[in-house]
Every structure is written in C-alpha cells, then in structure tokens.
C-alpha cells in the first residue's frame, strides 16, 4: 500500500522473488502504469485490491488516518508498517497483529537492512514476515519499540548520509582537476569495495581505517583534517536530529 520510493522498491524485489504474489495500491495513475508495465498489478484503492495474507503499509505517516477505516475493514492477518512514528498501539486499531519495520532504500537492489519489531507476534507470523524482508536484504528484530527511533536514525536514514559523503568526495575530486566521469568512477568503486571489504573482514572498521593510514602518509593527513572538522560530532548530530524527528512524529497527531 503505497508505491513511492520504498514501497516500489519492496514491490519490485518481491515480484522478482519466488513464491510471492504481489499487488500494489497506489492513488497516482502514472505510478500505477509503471507497475503494470512491469507486470505488477496496481490498484487505485484498497477496496479494488485482492485480499492479502500480509499487507505492507508504505505510505507517509501523515496519510495513515486517511487509510485507517479502510484498513480496518480489510482484516489482513498481518499488517506491516514502514511508517516512522506510527506506533504499534496505533496500528492495533486497524489490525490485531501489526508489525513495524524500518527498511532502507537499498531494498531496490535486494540489499536492504530491515529491522522489525512486534514483541507479541506469534513465532509462525514472525517467520512469515522475516521471509518477506529476507528477499530484499538482511533482517534483524528488536523487542523494544523505542529502539526503532535509533534504527531510523542509523540504517533508515543512513543511505542518505553516505550519498551525501559520496557527493562531497566527487566534488573534491573534480576540484582537484579530475574529469567528472573519472571522479564518479573513483568514488563509486572505492565506496563499493570498502563496504564489501568491511562486511567480509573480521576486523573492526576502526582497525581497517588504521590499515589504510600509514604513519606520516597521505591518508593520515586527510583523517587529521576530518577530525579537525569534528567528523564524529557531525555524524552524531545528524543521528540525533533524525532520532529526535522520529520521536516527534510519534508524538504528533496523524
């Protein structure tokens, strides 16, 4: 339900996965055409969609109240919400077994980090929901709903932080005289290779950092500049701001 960036990424990934039948509910006609071209049934309203075993709510938190009555009538056995700030208690008004999940945009290529929360969910339902999100990347569960604010700040919003850093690095490369195409290639492959190395290494990323930075070398000089600019403090401030906004959304009326 909702065919925006995240809802669309999830729908595309599940459509390509075996053993899933996917339909999308999306009010925007152009987006519905996009899904239909890809072979994914798309409906303008929830009433037009087939009854699902699992309904994934991928709309903006501000839209939740507009869907509440209709969702309650569908009686989906499991309702999984990606909405930041809409609590399990609020979701229980429309479904007996709600689940909250915070995925991230790499779901578009099957590399999402999805963190789920539903403390009282039966084991079989937990397995079913895990199977869905395992098709778009890695899955983890938290038992404390409040932890989702921090999850939102780190992995939910995290791709944007990394894209912003990549953009800054590309601009630095161009400023130092490299052609834009080469600057982009250098940044993309460096980030990709570094992420893969970190994910496969038994070393902490802080240790990997020291392995690149030899004493008195170029990397050490660059790291000193980043530290002088309070890189850790900026990242902490960004995460704190995202977490605070998540909490504010949870406390606002929808």
Please summarize what this structure is:
With 254 residues, the protein is α/β, with parallel strands linked by helices. The protein is built from 11 helices and 7 strands.
Note the quaternary state here.
single chain
DSSP summary: helix tally: 11
Numbering strands along the chain, what is their spatial order in the largest sheet? 3-4-5-6-7
Number of strands: 7
Percent strand equals 5-15%
What is the rounded Rg? 21 Å
Compute the average pLDDT. Answer: 92
Structural class: alpha/beta
Profile the largest sheet. 5 strands, mixed
Instruction: Characterize the overall form.
Output: elongated
Q: Can you give the helix content as a percent range?
A: 40-55%
Low-confidence stretches: none
End-to-end distance: 17 Å
SSE run: HEHEEHEHEEHEHHHHHH
Keywords:
alpha/beta; five-stranded mixed β-sheet; 254 residues; two-stranded parallel ribbon
Topology (SSEs and partners):
Blueprint: H1 5-16, E1 24-25, H2 29-37, E2 42-43, E3 54-57, H3 64-74, E4 78-81, H4 88-91, E5 98-102, E6 112-117, H5 123-134, E7 137-141, H6 147-156, H7 158-175, H8 180-200, H9 205-212, H10 218-228, H11 231-251
Parallel strand pairs: 1-2, 3-4, 4-5, 6-7
Antiparallel strand pairs: 5-6
Helix pairs in contact: 6-11, 7-8
């Amino acid at each position: 339900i909702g065919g925006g960036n995240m809802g669309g990424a999830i729908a595309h990934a599940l459509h390509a996965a075996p053993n899933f039948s996917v339909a999308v509910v999306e009010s925007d006609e152009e987006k519905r055409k996009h899904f239909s071209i890809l072979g994914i049934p798309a409906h303008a309203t929830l009433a037009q969609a087939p009854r699902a075993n699992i309904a994934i709510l991928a709309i903006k938190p501000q839209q939740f109240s507009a869907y509440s009555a209709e969702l309650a009538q569908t009686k989906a056995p499991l309702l999984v919400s990606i909405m930041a700030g809409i609590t399990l208690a609020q979701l229980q008004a429309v479904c007996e077994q709600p689940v909250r999940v915070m995925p991230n945009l790499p779901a578009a290529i099957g590399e999402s980090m999805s963190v789920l929360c539903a403390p009282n969910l039966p084991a079989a339902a937990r397995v079913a929901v895990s199977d869905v999100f395992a098709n778009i990347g890695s899955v983890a569960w938290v038992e404390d709903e409040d932890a989702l604010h921090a999850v939102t700040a780190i992995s939910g919003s995290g791709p944007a932080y990394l894209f912003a850093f990549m953009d800054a690095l590309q601009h630095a490369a161009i400023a130092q005289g490299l052609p834009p195409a080469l600057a982009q290639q250098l940044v993309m492959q460096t980030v990709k290779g570094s992420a893969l190395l970190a994910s496969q290494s038994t070393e902490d990323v802080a240790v990997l950092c020291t392995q690149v930075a030899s004493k008195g070398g170029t990397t050490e000089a660059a790291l000193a500049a980043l530290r002088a600019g309070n890189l850790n403090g900026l990242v902490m401030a960004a995460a704190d701001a995202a977490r605070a906004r998540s909490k504010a959304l949870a406390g606002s009326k929808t």
